[in-house]
C-alpha cells in the first residue's frame, strides 16, 4: 500500500513538472505554433521517440535540422590560452539550426519549409553564405575561472539566479549560458531570454570583472 502511494505521488510530481516546463515555452518566442502547419510546441526541437537516425548524438532527442553553414569562430590575441574551437559545439550548434538565418524553422522531423529567422533574432554577420561568428561573443570556449578578468568561483557566482557552472556545457560557454531557451519565468528576461538584466552591463559583469 505504501509503495503504491509513493509511486502515485511520484507520477503526480512528474506530470506537474512536465506541465510547468510546457507552460514556460508556451507563448514564448520559442513557441512556433504560430507558423502554418506547426501544431506541437516541443516537437520543433525534440522528438519524444527519437525518430531520426542521429538525433541523440545531436542533442536531447534533437528533432530539428542543423545549420549547413561553415562557421568562422571568434579568435583574439587577448582571449587567453583557451583553444579556439573549429566549429560551434554543445547547445550552440543546435541554436544555430534556426538562428543562422538560413535553416527553415519548419525543418524538423524530416519536414521542410521556407520561414527563416531575420532581423535581430538572427546572429549578426550571418548572411546566408557567410558563417562569420567573429563579431559575436565566443561560444564553445572553456570558462577558465583562474583567468584574470573572470569570476573565480563559478559554483557560487551567479548569472541571474543560476550559478555560472550550472549553465556551462561541459565546462564551455555556449548560447544557453546567457540565454534561457526554455523561458524560465524566474530567469529569462525579455525577447532575448537573457538570464539576467543587462542594465549597466550587469549581465556581462556576471562573469567578467571590469
Task: Produce a short descriptive summary.
With 210 residues, the protein is mostly helical. The chain has helices at 2-25, 55-58, 90-99, 175-178; strands spanning 71-72, 131-132, 141-142, 158-159, 162-163, 172-173.
Structure in words:
The chain has 210 residues and is mainly alpha-helical. It is built from four helices and six strands. The chain folds into three domains: 1-31; 38-137, no CATH class; 143-210, no CATH class. Strand 4 and strand 5 form a beta hairpin. The radius of gyration is 19 Å and the shape is globular.
Topology as H/E string? HHEHEEEEEH
Tally of individual helices = 4
Integer tally of domains: 3
Helical residues, percent: 10-25%
How many beta-strand segments? 6
- The best one-word shape is globular
Question: What's the structural blueprint in terms of helices and strands?
Answer:
Blueprint: H1 2-25, H2 55-58, E1 71-72, H3 90-99, E2 131-132, E3 141-142, E4 158-159, E5 162-163, E6 172-173, H4 175-178
Parallel strand pairs: 1-2
Antiparallel strand pairs: 3-6, 4-5
List the defining traits of the structure above.
mainly alpha, single chain, two-stranded parallel ribbon, globular, 210 residues, disordered N terminus
Amino acid at each position: 500500500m505504501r509503495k503504491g502511494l509513493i509511486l502515485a505521488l511520484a507520477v503526480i510530481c512528474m506530470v506537474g513538472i512536465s506541465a510547468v516546463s510546457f507552460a514556460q515555452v508556451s507563448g514564448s518566442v520559442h513557441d512556433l505554433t504560430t507558423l502554418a502547419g506547426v501544431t506541437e510546441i516541443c516537437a520543433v526541437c525534440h522528438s519524444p521517440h527519437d525518430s531520426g537516425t542521429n538525433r541523440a548524438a545531436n542533442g536531447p532527442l534533437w528533432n530539428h535540422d542543423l545549420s549547413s553553414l561553415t562557421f568562422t569562430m571568434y579568435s583574439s590575441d587577448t582571449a587567453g590560452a583557451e583553444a579556439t574551437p573549429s566549429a560551434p559545439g554543445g547547445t550552440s550548434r543546435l541554436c544555430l539550426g534556426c538562428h543562422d538565418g538560413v535553416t527553415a524553422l519548419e525543418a524538423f522531423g524530416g519536414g521542410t519549409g521556407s520561414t527563416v529567422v531575420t532581423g535581430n533574432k538572427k546572429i549578426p554577420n550571418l548572411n546566408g553564405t557567410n558563417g562569420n561568428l567573429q563579431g559575436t561573443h565566443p561560444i564553445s570556449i572553456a570558462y577558465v575561472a583562474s583567468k584574470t578578468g573572470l569570476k573565480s568561483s563559478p559554483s557560487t557566482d551567479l548569472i541571474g539566479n543560476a550559478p555560472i557552472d550550472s549553465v556551462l556545457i561541459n565546462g564551455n560557454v555556449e548560447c544557453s549560458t546567457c540565454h534561457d531557451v526554455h523561458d524560465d519565468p524566474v530567469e529569462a528576461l525579455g525577447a532575448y531570454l537573457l538570464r539576467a538584466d543587462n542594465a549597466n552591463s550587469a549581465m556581462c559583469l556576471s562573469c567578467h570583472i571590469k
